[in-house]
Amino acid sequence: MDDTDENAKCGCEVCAVKCWTMEGCVGDAASLRYLCTCSMPCSKGGVAPPKFLSKDAKLPFLISLLMGLQHALAMIAGIATSGGYLIANDACLPWQRDSQMCDNRSWLISTAWICSGMLTLIQVFRAKIKGTNYFLGTGMISVMGTSFTFLPIAREMTMEAFYEARSAGEVTEGAAMIGYGKFLGTCLVASLFEVAVSLLPRRIREKLFPPLVVGIAVMMIGAGLIGSGIKYLGGGVFCGENMVSYFGAMYEHPFNYAIKKGTIKCNENGDVGLVFGSPEYVFLGVGTIAFGVVLQVFGSPFLKSTFIFWSLIFGSIISAIATKDGNSYWDTDAIEAAPAVTFFWAGPHGAIPIGFDIAYFLPILICYWVTAAETVGDVQMTAYYSRVVKMNPATGEPETDADADELTSRIQGGLLADGVNSMIAVLCGSPPNTTFSQNNGVIALTQCASRSAGFSCGAWLIFFGLFGKIGAVFSSIPICVVGGIVLQCFTMVFVAGISMLSDAGVGKESNRRASYIAMIAIAFGVGVALEPQIFDAGVTSPASFYHANLGFNYGIWPKYMVCNTPLQRTITTPSACDVGGTAVHDATAAQCTTLNGTFTETSTETVAFPYCANDNGMCCGEWNKAAKSLRTAVIVILKTPYCIAPLIALILHMIIPYDNKDGEASAGTDKASSTVTASA
What is d(CA 113, CA 118) in angstroms, rounded to the nearest whole number? Predict the structure, then answer.
């Protein structure tokens, strides 16, 4: 088939499956035998893989469904967690509860699945823009999903709006929804960056995305999220971050709903309330990971490539059966309340109100740069595994000029679809989307590159999303089980970055320059991932229960410095009786006279108090909005691993010259597109 036919039909021809014969419906037995044959530790070889199926090969109906389901199951958990579960879950905690945002949790999961399925169809179709040489879509199995890159900023913007409303004395119900709407609107505007990048000439795109910098960016996405994943596995982020602070917390503190007798109980695991790191939580989380190991040892190719999904199913079943003191690890209220069928804008509180926040525009723009870099690597590897282009294994570059032109066209179409699809996603209420690269591993394993599987994958994701009960079931899974899943997803991203850095020459003696740049960038990236409070005292500190106070008082740029009018505070000095230098408490004036002491009456004083203490950050009456926005942008960049690290790497990459002995090799390496092997 030539390009003209492909452009005219947009890939629709691969869907024309003849299902009126047994072979047309089921396919050949060899393909099914390969997919379903389990392996054994002591076995050598196994069932021979089926013949390679090209991107335009027509698949039998059953094979198409199975191949598409395999791609969908490989990413369904990642889409759900980054597509709304972890964002809305923050608003379900008692001390910062926004019922409207919390109620949207299962709906956001369903919306993310529907969006990913619909946007996958756009990527796989590949349509030429009339009158130009530009394409929309890759025309390959480039499966879309919500990006992990935006997850930390989405969570911060959502709950920042809640705390701002509380500080201003406003109604907090629905405030988190407004914050999430501002995140979506800011992403909507910033997505134009990726659209613009897709229209740039190839040589400019290569300068924007050198593999060394891209590898560091991808690695830091994982580094910034792994810490959260291990806290989920231990019972929850909040209780995990307060193993120090709760010992000094007051029993009657107005926001300490979870504090009792010197302990903070994790309350994101149904009715079971245990302290962080309890064996019950850890065993459930690690059990999900262990089941994935079993599948890698004994499973068939189908099970191995979808191990994340089956691990989630295993952990969910075990946690549903298990109880603690008669209490269930599951919260079934959301399942009962969820509608049978759902769709965009059909959340329990209507459509998300779209807004905009200039303070987060630059950090989100950097996120799109990282996402675009991921897409470049993803599309290259999809083209390679789909045998659309031939790559030179020594240089990582296309073998011929025709291959280079074909790859450039596919990357351009993928980037444009990423930008357009992200616009569509945020308008539907879901975070920005990007290509999920673990699907490249599925292609390599099954030898099936047919777009029929891509269309089937999109249809499966839409199917899962349409039924609201499925999303509600996922939102009710105990956080410790979810932790076992997302910890693996986040680490996949980290490992992908390591692979890309290896391809870029990091660690090789002949490439001292690349190793040095990576060392400096990773030092700050991993550093802020471990200790973000170096730049923002209110983030993930050992006393994070008081994070709002700490962020107001301390840090490289504390909030009180952008506050025009600190709130006035009334300081009350209680009455006192001084008897010979000894204070007698609760003594009246008459009693103090009897004791021959000096009595001091109760006094009050109203002062403008610039520092927060036990006020949960509510210490400013009027902010300097411009300065506060600038501070927010700067602090977010400094404390976010995948913002600060790639920026440092890009600056160093631009100013440090190549060494004579490795300049040619380094330049060649930087021209090569990078390899991505894990989830976006």
Answer: 9
- Between CA 91 and CA 71 the distance in angstroms is 31
- Residue 345 dihedral angles phi and psi, to the nearest 5°: 60, 10
Q: What's the pLDDT tens digit per position in 479-510?
A: 999 899 888 888 888 887 888 788 777 877 66
Q: What is the pTM of this model?
A: 0.79
The CA-atom distances, in angstroms, between 412 and each of 198, 199, 386, 407, 609 are 5, 7, 17, 8, 55
User: Measuring CA to CA, which residue among 499, 486, 38 is closest to residue 296?
Assistant: 38
Q: Within 10 A of 53 (CB to CB), how many other CB atoms are there?
A: 21
Q: Residue 263: which residues within 8 A CB-CB, separation 6 or more?
A: 246, 275
Looking at residue 107, its pLDDT comes to: 94
Whole-number mean pLDDT of the chain? 81
Domain boundary assignment for the chain: 61-504, 568-608
Torsion angle (degrees, nearest 10) of CA 657, 661, 666, 669: 170
- Whole-number Å distance between alpha carbons of 266 and 261: 14
**pLDDT score at 306:** 82
Q: How far apart are CA 545 and CA 339, in angstroms?
A: 35
Cβ atoms of 283 and 292 within 8 Å: the answer is no
Query: What is the three-class DSSP state of 604?
Result: strand
Structure tokens at 584: 């007698």
Number of H helices, E strands in the chain: 29, 16
Phi, psi for residue 392 in degrees, rounded to 5? -80, 115
Per-residue pLDDT tens over the stretch 257-306 = 444 444 567 878 888 988 888 999 999 999 999 999 998 888 887 888 78
Name the token pair of 80. 């759900």
What are the tokens at 166? Answer: 């509380």
Three-state helix/strand/coil letters over 623-635: ECHHHHHHHHHHH
Model confidence at 248, pLDDT cuts 50, 70, 90, reads very low
Tokens 């700050």 map to which residue? 524
| Cβ 190 vs Cβ 201: under 8 Å | no
Give the HSE-up count for residue 324: Cα atoms under 13 Å, Cβ half-sphere: 15
283, 340 in Cβ contact below 8 A? no
Tell me if 497 sits within 8 A of 220, measured CB to CB: yes
- Mean pLDDT along residues 10-30: 56
How far, in Å, CA of 6 to CA of 140, rounded? 12
Strand-strand pairing, 135-136 and 127-128: antiparallel
Q: How many CB atoms lie within 10 A of CB 313?
A: 14
Helices (H), 331-437: 333-337, 361-385, 401-427
* N- to C-terminal Cα separation, the chain: 32
Contact 100, 350 (CB under 8 A): no
Q: At what angle do helices 663-671 and 211-233 cross, to 10 degrees?
A: 60
Rounded Cα gap, residues 186 and 180, in angstroms: 10
φ, ψ dihedrals at 263, nearest 5°: -130, 150
Q: Nearest CA to 443 among 31, 52, 32?
A: 52
The 10 Å CB-count burial string (b at 16+, else e) for 77-87 is: bbbbbbbbbbb
Q: What tokens appear for 535 in the block?
A: 């730049």
Can you say how many angstroms the Cα of residue 144 is from the centroid of all Cα atoms in its chain?
A: 14
pLDDT tens for 48-84 read 666 778 888 888 888 888 888 888 888 888 898 888 8
Q: 519: left (phi > 0), else alpha (psi -120 to 50), else beta?
A: alpha
Which residue, among 621, 638, 626, has the nearest Cα to 555 in the 3D structure? 638
Q: How many Å apart are CA 27 and CA 24, to the nearest integer?
A: 6
